[in-house]
Amino acid sequence: MNKFQKSALIGVGALVLSTVAIQASDLLRGVEGNLAGLVSESTPICGRGAVQILLGSHTICVDEYEASPSDACPQADPQSPLDTQNNINTADCIPVSEPEAIPWRFISLTQAQQLCARAGKRLPSNEEWYKVASGIANDDQCAINAGSSVQRTGSGQCLTPSGVHDMVGNVWEWVDEEVKSGIYAERTLPESGYVALVDSNGVVIETAAVGADEFGNDYAWTDHEGVRGMIRGGFYGSGEDAGIFAQNMSVALDSRTAGIGFRCVKDL
User: Fold this and answer.
1) Quick check: 179 and 189 in contact, CB under 8 A?
2) How far apart (Å, rounded) are the C-alpha atoms in residues 1 and 80?
3) Which residue has the higher pLDDT, 101 or 39?
4) C-beta of residue 50 within 8 angstroms of C-beta of residue 63
């Protein structure tokens, strides 16, 4: 091979390598194909609308937003227990985690459990709910003084550090717990009152007649008769009673009101 042929081959090789490099650079910059965009927009392990959170002994996916009905549900904004039942009777109707949606309300504990299961998820335990919500630093950013109007999901700046919206305020959220005759976790609960002391899972141990700044002036409701459910966080009309320590353990298992909703989680 003469010097001219070698030079030609070298030039062609350089051109090919240069072209490949330019194309690769363009892809990474999003000029063609948008490789970087594909990577950043790829579905995370938890799926759309959920975040992965490590809770010491286990990892869960937590829905970013309070549950709302999917597009397959006949009632996009249930206004009564009957609306919720009509949705449940539709096989394709599932709860979803979406921004700017009306939270699903008028739903009992059992119905919330069923709907989360239908979506391949479950309700959070009290411990999970509390540990995820604990990072909220400023209740003023949460929908706790919205009068008589529920807010759309994610419409404010009520965020945990992990990016979960509205765990305080907007709607109370069912957790997968029961309280029997005023006893929870083998401990008799105090009478209803302002939270004065909690255990490591945020469950009230002592109450007082006046609010405590340490616990955000949050309130706890208890009942020492029958089997009760547990809802946490407060709702749009709670005012200062709402917060990460706010808990209602006097609510009937079949309570279905305008101020109670839910959020789903999934095990990893």
Assistant:
1) yes
2) 87
3) 101
4) yes
Q: Which residue has the tokens 């039942």?
A: 85
Of the candidates 234, 261, 263, the one whose C-alpha atom is nearest the C-alpha of residue 62 is 263
What would the DSSP string read from start to end of the chain? --HHHHHHHHHHHHHHHHHHHHHHHHHHHTSSTTHHHHHHTSPPTT-TTEEEEEETTEEEEEESS--EE-TTSS-SS--SHHHHHHHHTSTT--EE--TT-PPP-S--HHHHHHHHHHTT-BPPPHHHHHHHHTT---GGGSBSS-TT-PPPTT-S--B-TT--B-SSBSSEEEEEEEEETTEETTEEPPPSEEEEEE-TTS-EEEEESS--GGGTT-EEEE--SSEEEEEES--TT-GGG-STT-EEEEEETT---TTEE---EEE-
Rg (CA), the chain: 25
Beta-ladder partners of 165: 159
- The CA distance from 141 to 67, in Å, is 20
Tell me what pLDDT residue 265 has: 98
Query: What Å distances lie between residue 72 and 64, 76, 104, CA to CA?
Result: 20, 9, 14
Say what the pTM is: 0.83
Structure tokens at 179: 């309280």
* pLDDT category of residue 140 using cuts at 50, 70 and 90: confident
